[in-house]
Design a protein that fits this description.
The structure is a single chain. By secondary structure, this protein is α+β, with helices and mostly antiparallel strands. The longest helix has 24 residues. Helices cover about 20% and strands about 30% of the residues. The protein is built from nine helices and 25 strands. The radius of gyration is 22 Å and the shape is globular. Strands 13-12-23-17-18-20-14 form a seven-stranded mixed β-sheet, with no helix packed on it. A five-stranded antiparallel β-sheet has the order 10-9-8-7-11.
Length: about 400
């Protein structure tokens, strides 16, 4: 029996090593539990379970996790006895696989745990910090006199410096005790790109080929909220829709920036749910401003990840889920207008400055495209996830 559990654990360890978002949790007994199928017809649908805690009764409690976009089931397993030699063998195997995977990811431009900068509020104070485990290193108390917000940190090109200097410091506050705010509190510009994936252009069913230039519109900071905060459905309309997108934040300003050097102007990456009031984008000809700017209908976050290599953007999966169901999924390599092209085009007519936010377009699958349409409603949970950046999560609520 013990031999079987070791074999299952080895198989599970190999699968965990393929997914950078999972950390192996060691425990006095079995540190990993085997997978099981969620559905008979899909042998690739696995439940990945990590030991969360061992209770006084000796039972092993397992966390709910996610693999391949599927929601796994929370369950608990009975106690398993293993020899110390077996347990160390399993853990050693896991560590070896993870070290190999970490090296590969780093060479591909994906550090295992990139620095994650958060703008937050706690009580009556707003600040910024660096995520460390389940806590936050408060950088604003250490650097606030020099850099009042992350916008000034970015302008000084100091994200990497602050991350290096904070390495090893203990967390000052629990993530449970903060309210996430949008990462750049007062950007000069928030520019959004429309219709930037091939299937999105086909959704319009107008027989037109993809345009030769990006469709753009402006949003105001007040139309966005932070990670874990509710998206607000206004009383004027029930047609609140989701749009998962990747965000680039400008670090070095410029005008008429060549495509060849465009990515040199990017400081950081984030995510957006570019929430939209659909009927209000059709209130007049040739503009979407109204439907895109209702207060707190969209979100940006949960954090900023410093941009260091084009591999962070070149071909990553972008996915949006509503109540665990995948609604949007595509890869950045399929974008009609590349990140380089977007920066080049936007900087032709306006000077980009540090802290400017560009929301770069959403895949097909928004609620408006269903028949009948599926609008967001109070109680829904929307997740936007991109490889190497994180997951932006927001519930939905009616305006109070």
């Amino acid at each position: 029996m013990v031999r079987n559990h070791v074999r299952w654990s080895r198989q599970l360890a190999e699968r965990l090593a393929e997914h950078r978002e999972f950390e192996i949790v060691t425990a006095p007994m079995l540190s990993l539990f085997s997978f099981r199928h969620l559905s008979e017809g899909d042998p690739d649908a696995h439940t990945i379970a990590l030991v969360n805690a061992i209770n006084d009764d000796g039972r092993i409690y397992l966390t709910q996790t996610r693999v391949d976009g599927r929601v796994a089931i929370r369950f608990q397993a009975g106690q398993f006895d293993m020899t110390q030699e077996d347990a160390e063998g399993v853990r050693g195997h896991c560590r070896g696989r993870r070290r190999a995977r970490r090296t590969t990811r780093k060479n591909e431009g994906f550090p295992m745990t990139p620095p994650r900068f958060v703008t937050f509020s706690a009580g009556n104070r707003r600040g910024y910090g660096l995520v460390s485990g389940n806590g936050l290193i408060d950088l604003s108390t250490r650097y606030g006199s020099t850099f009042p917000t992350l916008r000034e940190v970015i302008e000084a090109g100091a994200l990497t410096r602050l991350a290096d200097e904070a390495a090893g410091l203990p967390a000052d506050i629990s993530l449970d005790d903060i309210r996430y705010e949008i990462p750049i509190p007062a950007p000069e510009k928030i520019i959004c790109v429309g219709v930037n994936f091939p299937d999105r252009n086909e959704e319009y069913k107008d027989g037109q080929v993809a345009p030769s230039n990006p469709s753009l519109f402006i949003r105001f900071p007040r139309s966005f909220t932070g990670h874990s905060q509710p998206l607000i459905r206004p009383p004027e309309s029930a047609q609140l829709d989701y749009e998962g997108e990747i965000v680039i934040v400008i670090g070095k300003g410029g005008r008429r920036i060549p495509e060849a050097t465009a990515l040199d102007h990017v400081a950081a990456l984030s995510l957006s749910n570019e929430g939209t009031i659909r009927d209000w984008v059709r209130h007049a000809k040739f503009n979407v401003t109204q439907g895109k700017n209702f207060d707190r209908t969209g979100s940006i976050g949960p954090w900023l990840v410093p941009f260091t290599d084009e591999a962070q953007l070149a071909d990553i999966k972008l996915e949006t889920r509503v109540n665990g169901e995948v609604r949007q999924q595509d890869r950045t390599s399929r974008m009609i207008f590349s990140f380089r092209k977007i920066i080049n085009y936007v900087s032709t007519f306006t000077t980009l400055v540090p802290g400017d936010v560009i929301v770069t377009g959403t895949p097909t699958g928004a609620g408006a495209r269903f028949d009948p349409p599926i609008w967001l409603k109070p109680g829904d949970i929307v997740e936007v996830e991109a490889q190497g950046i994180g997951t932006l999560i927001n519930p939905v609520a009616d305006e109070a």
